[in-house]
Amino acid sequence: MTQPSPPAGQPTMKERIENELATVIAAEQQGPAVLISAGVHGDEYEPMVAAVELAAILPGMLTHGQVTVVPVVNPDAYGWGSRQGSDGLDLARICPGNHIGSASEAYAARISSMIEQADYYVDMHTGGLTYEIHPLAGYMLHPDEGILDIQRQMARCFDVPLIWGTDYRPQGRTLSVARDAKVPAVYLEFGGGTGFRRQVVDTYVAGVINLLRYLGMIEGEVSRSPEPYWLEDHRPDSGYLQGKMPSPAEGILMAGVALGETVSAGQYFGRIFDPVSGVSHSVSADVAGIVFLKRAIVKVKSGDALGGILPITQKGKHTIYE
């Protein structure tokens, strides 16, 4: 695929974004170095806006340390409005990348280097065009208990109803780079599908500011959200969204549940209808818990993830071991 060329003498979209890849805000007094990123996937727009707004307001707020904000980690994927770049690669699966590789590999290498130099890291996401996600803050279940506890405290700084700790072993992620560099890191998920949701931007901006207060970098009292639904799931690939509730057939998804709804195991989740054959397949919830993930693109193929359920039904911290 070839991107359309801009008028003669004007920089390409990739060049424009590369020139503004990161904003560094430094306070006069020493403190931690925090990295905030968005746009790992090119179809996740609200985090990009949140990052730009943070870069604009933090210079007047930061009292200690340094914050680096990267609004669009993969400009190539953003140019295509896609999860993947023009090379067909998902940056969130190829870290630490390759500085002399393809576009996504080079951008993966660049953000990986920045993560390794940070003291704390926040990676902001949505469900992209494919999924809708109930607001959550997540982290890898780091084998270092000290780092893990810091990540728990970081996640609590965000006013979201779900906190999710998942298997630490997956490779290729921004958070796996942070894990290996022993950098405490969290990721945020909220929204997705088509349209723009201001609430996502506001939630992320407020949460980052609250985190910086917790780290002693901004003045003000740290706020804590009401007790969330909190799951630490140690099972292999527990955080792999694309593997949740695979569709039994190709067709049109007619969901029968809402994000944030509590369901019981075996409850009706929706159905897949094929208008060509007229065949319909009913889909049931695979476990009891909270619906946190729903497919936003209604046309599905066999094996596509239809949604996800966190297997907890009460607020407070819960743990699932292997």
UniProtKB/TrEMBL annotation:
Pfam families linked: AstE_AspA_cat
Organism: Dyadobacter fermentans
Secretion signal span: none
Highest rank taxon of the organism: Bacteria
Keyword hit for Phosphoprotein: no
Known cofactor(s): Zn(2+)
Domain called Succinylglutamate desuccinylase/Aspartoacylase catalytic: residue spans: 30-215
Lineage: Bacteria, Pseudomonadati, Bacteroidota, Cytophagia, Cytophagales
Keyword terms: Hydrolase, Metal-binding, Zinc
InterPro entries in the record: AstE_AspA_cat, N-alpha-Ac-DABA-like, N-alpha-Ac-DABA_deacetylase
Name of the protein this chain belongs to: Deacylase
